[in-house]
Design brief:
The protein is built from nine helices and 14 strands. It is α/β, with parallel strands linked by helices. The chain binds zinc ion (ZN) and fe (iii) ion.
Amino acid sequence: MLNIIQLPVLENNYIFIIHEPESGETAVVDPAIAAPVLATLRQRQWSLKYILNTHHHWDHIGANVELKQVTGCQIAASAFDQQRIPGVDISLKEGDYVMLGALPLVIIDTPGHTLGHIAYYSAKASALFCGDTLFAMGCGRLFEGSAEQLWRSLQKFKALPKNTQVYCAHEYTQNNGYFALRVEPGNLSLQQRMTQVNKQRQQHLTTIPTTINAELATNPFFREDSIALQQYLNMQGKSSLAIFTALRRLKDSF
Ligand code: ZN
Ligand code: FE
């Protein structure tokens, strides 16, 4: 239904090339650099229709201009970031969508990491491209938005079908997992996941995509309801947002 190729680039970024086989249409999510994208397109004989940016940070848009020049693709990004992302052709806001063949990719506004951050979601393909909003066992840092904004954005992801494949833009899983274990050491699912993740990383394998289901079981930023987590923070019975805010602050200095 959707052919997704994951390119590890720079220190720990992922670029996703997504190809809809029936129409033959192809998009790339957050191209930091051009060379591996162009190599993949050439090798598969795919032509690039869209660049889909999640936010304006350089490690997500670095190849915008070069790829547009070489392939003639169109660039889609948040309306909020129109002035600070180079080459934007299509400005998007919540509920808009980009069509890849017959497959709509729906825009979810996800401010917090940055104010103009958006995610691309396909219900049909059960795939979420969430940039730097949600990570495996973690979430994005607050560069521009408030904890409340990011928390609200994450609630939207939490409500997606549990089997949704989550394609986040960085391989931060192992370090996030150490923090998760610190705040919820008794979580058995978390312990098991970390055993697996440590093995994968030892072999330099990717831990992405994750799923909403896996995050509900192991990601502290999805688990404000956990009594053990509340006890660790000494915040029993406090609001989900208050606990999230405390966790985000704690993670910043981890
Ligand atoms: Zn970022
Ligand atoms: Fe990033």
